[in-house]
Amino acid sequence: MTNGKKKDGKKKGARKDDKKEAVEKSEESLDTTTDSGLTTLPDLWSESLSEEIPAIPEAPDKEVEEPPVQPVPAIHEEPVLAQVIIKSYEGEKVDEFYEGEGFICFEGGNTYKGLFSEGCMNGEGTYTWADGVKYEGTFVKNVPMHNGRYTWNDGSVYEGSIQDGLRHGYGVFRSGTHPISYIGYWCNGKRHGKGEIYYDQEHTSWYSGDWVNNVREGWGFRRYRSGNTYFGHWKKNLQHGYGKMIWLTDKQEYEGEWQYGLQHGSGIHTWFLKKMDLSQYPLRNEYVGDFVKGERHGHGTFLYADGAVYSGEWVHNKKHGKVELAVLRHISKLRKAYCFYSTLGYAPSSDGTYTLTMLQFWRFLKDCKFHLSSVTLAEIDRLLRGHKPLKQIHDPSDLLLFRTFVSYLVHLAFHIYHEEYKDKVPHLQKCFLEMMSRNVLPSACHVQGKQFYCRIHQLVSHALQFYC
């Protein structure tokens, strides 16, 4: 390499320094932490820790805190062939230019062994920095290009595509101090495009999906060491957009909208309880509705495993809304109706207690003309009890507690009248009051059919003295 060629090498090095400075400025603008040292341990290890979103508690009064945003860790940066001064050269020359195979020692301790062309490192060769970092691969006019292998003195290795000395294209990185590896695409030295990263040797903790400038962004699948999984959209290393999280150990799952690692927007959160005998489906509690910063907040419906339903407003994981006031306003009338229909067809109870059966509930629905509201009794059963095993959905002997009876009515009111009152607030309260005034108050306790009629007069007066 002649003195004239040394100047050309300096220009190359200057361009590389400018590129490195631009990359560092870009990282600072993203508020990421970047280690500019060539031999410093990459902090990929922290990326696999403290990032798993905790399961949402079923208890409505327990607060869920937003997890801290983890800094985006840096990985080894490629060394730059900076301005160098040749100390010695051993090899072939043509017209005073280094040509063919040769070996160079630079001031400061860096060395190069490989092919030269017209005084430049050109072709296959090995460049070793004084601190132990090594590049083995292709050079084009003093610049690492095409394909090569970087080895750091801690044992970390990158092997794959190279452009202008940076990892660019498809390549594999393996940490020398932690069981972490990345397999996928790179752009200007950063993970960018499709790629997979493994955080442990057993491959039980990993992410596969889209990357943008070293962070998870786009669609991807994340599996945690606990077995919990998330599949969906990411932004700045956090769940953001639409996705599904399964907490395997806590027997919970959430599918819906996310914002920076928390449930935010519309979604469905399910708590799985246990599987009943002779049923392939487990019991579950389920919330369908609005979330704000990881909490049930806004309008939503909670379906309990016992069949009870609450549909209304929520504030910080707690039931809240004017529909409760509407129910309380008519609670005595609802108790009277429950008492009346639970006694039909039964002899007087010794302790005056009765429990409504589904058969009696159907009589109540027919008397109140619910079946005339474009929905049949069978459809009402499926609407209110569709989560139950098929044999129980239409079981006439199944019992309904008073709280379940009220929950069913609230759910039914919303289903029948929500279109009529969709632009009015409070929405659910309007639906419930309309149901009471149009269906329940005018017609409840006035049996229209022959069923139970022969026993009504002798049973009602006896039962009412205990309940009313």
From TrEMBL:
Basic and acidic residues bias: start-end ranges: 15-28
Domain of life: Eukaryota
Biased composition (Low complexity): 31-44
Major location (coarse): other
Lineage of the organism: Eukaryota, Metazoa, Chordata, Craniata, Vertebrata
Region described as Disordered: 1-67
Keywords attached to this entry: Cell projection, Cilium, Cytoplasm, Cytoskeleton, Flagellum, Repeat
Organism: Lonchura striata
A cellular-component GO term for this protein: motile cilium
Cell location: Cell projection, Cilium, Flagellum; Cytoplasm, Cytoskeleton, Cilium axoneme
Protein name listed in UniProt: Radial spoke head 10 B2
Gene coding for it: RSPH10B2
A Pfam family annotated for this UniProt entry: MORN
